Amino acid sequence: MRWLGIVLVLCFLASCDDHKGEKVDSTSLTSLSALESTRLDFDTKDSKPIALLFYSATCQPCKILQDNLSHKSLENLASSYAIYPIDLYAKSPITAPFNTPIDIKSLRKVLHIYATPTMVFFDTAHSVVFTHIGVLGVNDLALLFTLLPTLPSTLQTQESKQQWIASHLTQSRASKGAL
């Protein structure tokens, strides 16, 4: 048992050195500390709220969510948002919708993106309002697109906004018998 522990520790230490010699040109990338502010530096021409859809090319639930987002019944509601799909495993820095390229690892860390699909909604001031991991049905998306602009101004923190929206989604599902 002791030998197994020693082998595992040695494997871990060896894997830590795998990327030691790699050099990354970080002069044009937005740093993690710059992203840690409450607002990201979006390059938007209009004052639409923003939704980032983090996906993976091999993720089946991601494809279902993308199909749901393009559903005909959501055209009017979704058109009031700037929706940007972002490949979670992209090798190159993310440019759109940001003013400067952002390293995907930094963006994932700051926004706490751990799985696909994940949608992150921002208000017109570019503050995070709501984050959802997993597939949303067409009805849930419609409700979400309707609820987000009606957030009470008394909700100051991201957690309170998240809880308010989640409770309204749950109430809506319960009233329709979808729970």
Concise synopsis of the structure shown:
The chain is 39% helix and 13% strand. It is α+β, with helices and mostly antiparallel strands. Helix 6 (138-147) packs across helix 7.
- Tell me the count of domains: 1
Question: In total, how many beta strands?
Answer: 4
Instruction: Give the termini separation.
Output: 47 Å
General form: globular
CATH homologous superfamily annotation? Glutaredoxin
In the sheet with the most strands, the strands line up as: 2-1-3-4
Q: Summarize the main sheet.
A: 4 strands, mixed
Specify the CATH architecture.
3-Layer(aba) Sandwich
Supply Rg.
19 Å
Low-confidence stretches: 7-38
Please tally the helical runs, counting DSSP H or I stretches of 4 or more residues: 7
Overall pLDDT level? 79
Helix/sheet category: alpha+beta
SSE topology sketch:
Blueprint: H1 2-16, H2 32-35, E1 50-55, H3 60-69, H4 75-78, E2 82-87, H5 104-111, E3 118-122, E4 128-133, H6 138-147, H7 158-175
Parallel strand pairs: 1-2
Antiparallel strand pairs: 1-3, 3-4
How does this model look, in words?
- This is Thioredoxin-related protein.
- InterPro entries: Thioredoxin-like_sf (IPR036249).
- It comes from Helicobacter canis.
- The chain is built from 7 helices and 4 strands; from the N terminus they run ααβααβαββαα.
- By secondary structure, it is of the alpha+beta class.
- It has one domain: Glutaredoxin.
- It has a 4-stranded mixed sheet with strand order 2-1-3-4.
- A hairpin with a 5-residue loop joins strand 3 and strand 4.
- The protein is globular and about 45 Å long.
- 19% of the residues are buried.
- About 18% of the residues have low confidence.
